[in-house]
Write a structure and sequence with these properties.
Blueprint lengths: L4 H6 L3 H20 L18 E5 L29 E7 L4 E7 L5 H16 L29 H6 L12 E12 L2 E12 L2 E13 L5 E3 L8 H16 L13 H12 L2 E3 L2 E6 L6 H4 L10 E5 L1 H7 L2 H7 L24 E10 L4 H10 L5 E4 L1 H6 L1 H9 L3 E4 L12 H19 L15 H7 L3 E2 L3 E2 L8 H8 L8 E5 L3 H5 L1 H10 L2 E4 L1 H4 L8 E2 L3
Parallel strand pairs: 3-4, 11-12, 11-16, 11-17, 12-13, 14-18, 15-16
Antiparallel strand pairs: 1-10, 2-3, 4-5, 5-6, 6-7, 8-9, 9-10
Helix pairs in contact: 5-6, 13-14, 15-17
Length: 540
């Protein structure tokens, strides 16, 4: 039978094919071995990718308080203090929880959402917590966000005593935040909850809240990016990493699996926005066949992708694009801090610092210190002092501190008639209402002297105290600190006088010492959640 010409040409025996191929391979290898390298030759460089660049950073933890997230004006946000956030810190060893977070001064939807996230983290501990405080110099006065905490490895966040449970075992819950954006009226704060157990990290979730400080609107990072953005970010990162590792292939990168997509989503949750675009940090653990073929089984350090121009525009959602239209404009700033910031004293360890007998020539300095320490106080004022320093009474009220009556002339109310006792109290309240525009409905009886006749005649809460520092005896700074910082417990009302310069001079040390133990300093009204009980009140 006649064979087909094509079959006849290709029908070499398998053994012959192997012999021919082996001979060709040997010849090629022999030839290659004789070729000398060309002096100065280097592989051709890959052309740059428009709008995208790559930086591989190490995972060295950023110390709390050091320079951190870069905001749009090029400055460094250090925990939020320089941007004007209210800084909070909660440590609860029973629940193995530490929380560091921020609030926007005044009432804001951002604060409501932050509270929801914090409550969720607390609920996840499975422990019903009550406020705790700690020994002197516990180091808790530095609150607020921790720069770099959004991109640190989760195990480091848990192990760091500045962010995680204090025993350093990594078992418990860390609730942290990182300021990632500030331009125009927009601030972006990444909130992260990391949970760990004896077996290691068990949960790591993050969301970035974008707040408009001028309108109160709050958006979350899921609204900022298109559905395709995580996959495109991951693919672009792998392409750039492949080039960096020396790969010369231009073949498309295989699609990521769900775990790698989640890694990219997490990175987008905490993106930082600058004048030139966005900086997106993918944590260690990028895994791709294209990298494995080059000896990179998994990235061991954070990978920062800088994105701008057309790629950034393509990845943003309509909301994200609208927000980014304001990129590069100076941050308008926060509302001014006020002492009447809402506080949840069922979670935070609250104490009320109070000052009697003012206002005085020293009160302005005290108010400056209170603002610097983000600490509230309550001032029980004498009528004659209000008349002497009306502008200081106005400032106390305007900055949100508590105000109350300390009578017109400072008598022992139990030694005068009920009618005169009532007049002593309410006449100051009427004066304060005229001067400050605030309604006043609490008083402190001079010397703490009050009985049932006075209580009945005045008909208002008589605010006494649970800690008397006896500052009028001028005991010295060290003793003042010991009498207040060293003995305070949650719910205490602490008595000082802003009439004495030594008291005012020591206020910064006292306030910081209390905060260092984990206290949040509030007004008397805040201490009771806005509902001060009647009769004698000595503590919560």
């Amino acid at each position: 039978m006649q064979q087909h010409p094509g079959k006849q040409r290709s029908a070499l025996p398998a053994r012959a094919v192997r012999l021919v191929c082996g001979t060709i391979a040997a010849a090629l290898l022999a030839g290659c071995a004789q070729i000398a390298p060309v002096s100065g030759w280097e592989p051709p460089a890959w052309p740059p990718v428009a709008g995208v660049s790559l930086v591989v950073a190490d995972d060295t933890p950023t110390e709390a308080g050091s320079a951190g997230a870069v905001v749009a004006d090029g400055s460094a946000a250090t925990g939020g203090q320089d941007l004007g956030f209210v800084e909070r810190r909660l440590r609860n060893d029973r629940a193995r929880l530490q929380a560091r977070y921020v609030e926007i001064p005044g009432w804001h939807r951002f604060n409501v959402r932050m509270s929801e996230l914090l409550r969720g983290a607390i609920s996840g501990t499975g422990t019903a917590i009550s406020p705790e405080v700690f020994p002197v110099s516990a180091g808790l006065s530095h609150g607020g966000c921790v720069p770099g905490s959004a991109s640190r490895p989760a195990a480091q966040v848990l192990a760091d005593p500045g962010t995680g449970p204090l025993d350093g075992t990594g078992t418990g819950t860390a609730f942290v935040c990182d300021i990632t954006t500030a331009f125009g009226a927009i601030v972006g704060v990444t909130v992260r909850t990391v949970v760990g157990g004896p077996e290691g990290v068990t949960s790591d979730t993050a969301v970035t809240l974008y707040a408009d400080v001028s309108t109160g609107e709050v958006h979350e990072s899921g609204e900022l990016w298109s559905a395709e953005a995580p996959g495109q970010l991951w693919t672009r990162a792998v392409e750039l990493l492949r080039r960096q590792a020396g790969g010369l292939s231009a073949a498309p990168v295989a699609a990521p699996d769900e775990a790698q997509l989640e890694l990219a989503r997490r990175a987008l949750e905490s993106a930082s926005f600058t004048e030139s675009g966005a900086s997106i940090v993918l944590p260690a653990g990028i895994v791709a066949p294209e990298l494995a073929g080059l000896g990179v089984e998994s990235t061991e350090s954070a990978t920062t992708v800088e994105v701008g121009g057309e790629p950034l525009t393509a990845w943003l959602s309509p909301f994200g694009a609208a927000m980014q239209a304001g990129r590069g404009t100076p941050f308008v700033g926060m509302p001014a801090w006020r002492a009447d910031q809402p506080v949840d004293c069922s979670l935070l360890a609250c104490a009320a610092v109070t000052y009697d007998d003012g206002p005085s020539e020293h009160t302005a300095r005290l108010l400056d210190t209170l603002r610097a320490e983000q600490s509230a106080a309550t001032f029980f004022m004498i009528g004659s002092a209000v008349r002497a320093f009306p502008e200081l009474a106005q400032r106390v009220a305007a900055e949100g501190h508590g105000i109350g009556s300390h009578t017109m002339t400072h008598p022992d109310l139990t030694t005068i008639s009920p009618e005169k006792a009532r007049a002593e109290v309410v006449d100051v309240e009427a004066l304060l209402a005229r001067v400050t525009g605030r309604t006043v409905a609490t008083y402190r009886p001079p010397y703490g002297a009050v009985n049932e006749r006075v209580l009945s005649a005045v008909g208002q809460p008589a605010i006494l105290w649970s800690i008397d520092t006896l500052d009028w005896k001028k005991p010295g700074r060290e003793e003042l600190v010991q009498r207040s910082v060293g003995v305070a417990t949650p719910g205490d009302i602490i008595l000082f006088h802003d009439l004495h310069p030594e008291t005012v001079d020591s206020a910064d040390v006292v306030l910081r010492g209390l905060r260092d133990r984990g206290f949040t300093l509030v007004t008397v009204e805040q201490l009771f959640g806005g509902q001060v009980p009647g009769g004698r009140v000595t503590r919560r």
